């Protein structure tokens, strides 16, 4: 390229540079030759390297955005429905050639001869640059996840903005019975961080085919737990010896219940007040949904409740340490009897009641529902339970479910 004589440039250098400039201008503007009057193109080819690259307007469209009909030089207005419009800051007018998307409130007026800096600034809540490398990184994220939690304050805001896939990329502290309505959208919710709270986090109106991947539930409060087993895996049955194991932990035991009072007579009077009537759980509740699955869930004092659900599955639980109730519960005490609900694979540990339990489910002739290939470790009451009798005035009995290839491990 260069002649080697200092900074002297040859004619060939200039020609090659010009070809690169045209290529870069085409990629940025999406116009043939990089000029305003050029034909719209989706791909530009570098005449020197032979590299073919998608133009930014084409990548914008693929990522769910589109170029605005104006730029920062001409000025214009982004309307209330223009959150998907990207505005160009032209190089020929002193800009950087990037497209910018407005993340603030709409409508937004952009005066003529302005810049992103003079019309709100560049930040996550104002103008966001989508040029070349920065745009492609953002576009790649958008192809995989339509939204991510770190861009929002609440889960409901995230749900409202979601299109297909959601990334939980920061810990989220929820309040008891906080409810997130997904509006019937079919979503993949990929959890790379924790949901933290005491009580229930409720997901409702998830569309059929939705999958929650890697949900991690953790209580705020560390409960008092007992562990009626020795270090060499023998049962402890003496009440005083069991109470001697009492400690605060989220990982090594379960909260005592009235069931323990019956199993170990005399233990109730020996337990201190702080260890009685606890109700510490961090619960992900899937409410009144059909065809929703939770995959590879985990957590501490964690519970997973499917309430009023049908054809839902808990798949490959990743050894969550259970809270005060059943670790995995399918409860259909109102409306139609539950059908098609399964626990498939995976393992849970501890929990005060059962590892997996069913209330008012009926799999019908096909025995559509039950537990397959699951392992329960040291549940406080039972590994797998089908309720009998009534809850209030409603029967909790279950019929025609299948239970196979599973193990309940004690002590």
Automatic annotation (TrEMBL):
<dbReference type="InterPro" id="IPR015331">
    <property type="entry name" value="P22_tailspike_C"/>
</dbReference>
<protein>
    <submittedName>
        <fullName>Endorhamnosidase</fullName>
    </submittedName>
</protein>
<dbReference type="InterPro" id="IPR012332">
    <property type="entry name" value="Autotransporter_pectin_lyase_C"/>
</dbReference>
<feature type="domain" description="P22 tailspike C-terminal">
    <location>
        <begin position="138"/>
        <end position="411"/>
    </location>
</feature>
<dbReference type="Pfam" id="PF09251">
    <property type="entry name" value="PhageP22-tail"/>
</dbReference>
<dbReference type="Pfam" id="PF18668">
    <property type="entry name" value="Tail_spike_N"/>
</dbReference>
<dbReference type="InterPro" id="IPR040775">
    <property type="entry name" value="Tail_spike_N"/>
</dbReference>
<dbReference type="InterPro" id="IPR011050">
    <property type="entry name" value="Pectin_lyase_fold/virulence"/>
</dbReference>
<feature type="domain" description="Tail spike TSP1/Gp66 N-terminal">
    <location>
        <begin position="93"/>
        <end position="132"/>
    </location>
</feature>
């Amino acid at each position: 390229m260069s002649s080697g004589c200092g900074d002297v440039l040859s004619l060939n250098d200039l020609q090659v540079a010009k070809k690169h400039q045209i290529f870069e201008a085409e990629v940025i503007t999406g116009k043939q030759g990089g000029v305003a009057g050029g034909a719209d193109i989706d791909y530009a080819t570098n005449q020197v390297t032979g590299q073919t690259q998608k133009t930014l307007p084409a990548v914008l469209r693929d990522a769910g955005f589109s170029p605005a009909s104006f730029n920062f030089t001409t000025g214009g207005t982004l309307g209330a429905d223009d959150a998907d419009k990207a505005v160009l800051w032209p190089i020929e007018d002193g800009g950087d050639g990037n497209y910018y998307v407005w993340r603030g409130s709409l409508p937004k007026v952009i005066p003529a001869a302005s810049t992103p800096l003079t019309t709100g600034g560049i930040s996550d809540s104002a103008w966001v640059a989508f040029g070349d490398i920065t745009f492609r990184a953002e576009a790649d994220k958008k192809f995989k996840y339509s939204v991510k939690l770190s861009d929002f304050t609440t889960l409901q805001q995230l749900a409202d903005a979601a299109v297909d896939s959601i990334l939980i990329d920061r810990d989220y502290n929820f309040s008891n019975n906080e409810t997130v309505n997904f509006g019937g959208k079919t979503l993949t919710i990929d959890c790379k961080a924790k949901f933290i709270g005491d009580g229930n986090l409720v997901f409702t109106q998830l569309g059929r085919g939705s999958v929650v991947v890697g949900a991690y539930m953790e209580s705020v409060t560390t409960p008092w737990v007992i562990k009626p087993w020795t270090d060499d895996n023998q049962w402890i049955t003496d009440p005083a010896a069991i109470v001697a194991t009492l400690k605060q932990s989220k990982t090594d035991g379960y909260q005592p219940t009235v069931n323990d009072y019956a199993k170990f007579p005399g233990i109730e009077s020996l337990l201190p007040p702080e260890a009685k009537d606890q109700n510490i759980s961090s619960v992900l509740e899937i409410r009144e949904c059909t065809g929703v699955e939770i995959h590879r869930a985990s957590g501490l004092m964690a519970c997973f409740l499917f309430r009023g659900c049908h054809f839902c599955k808990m798949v490959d639980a990743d050894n969550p340490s259970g809270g005060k109730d059943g670790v995995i519960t399918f409860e259909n005490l109102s409306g139609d009897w539950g059908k098609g609900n399964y626990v498939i694979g995976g393992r849970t540990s501890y929990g005060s009641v059962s590892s997996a339990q069913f209330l008012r489910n009926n799999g019908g002739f096909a025995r559509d529902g039950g537990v397959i290939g699951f392992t329960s470790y040291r549940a406080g009451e039972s590994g797998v339970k089908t309720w009998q009798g009534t809850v209030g005035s409603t029967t909790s009995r279950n019929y025609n479910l299948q239970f196979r290839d599973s193990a309940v491990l004690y002590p």
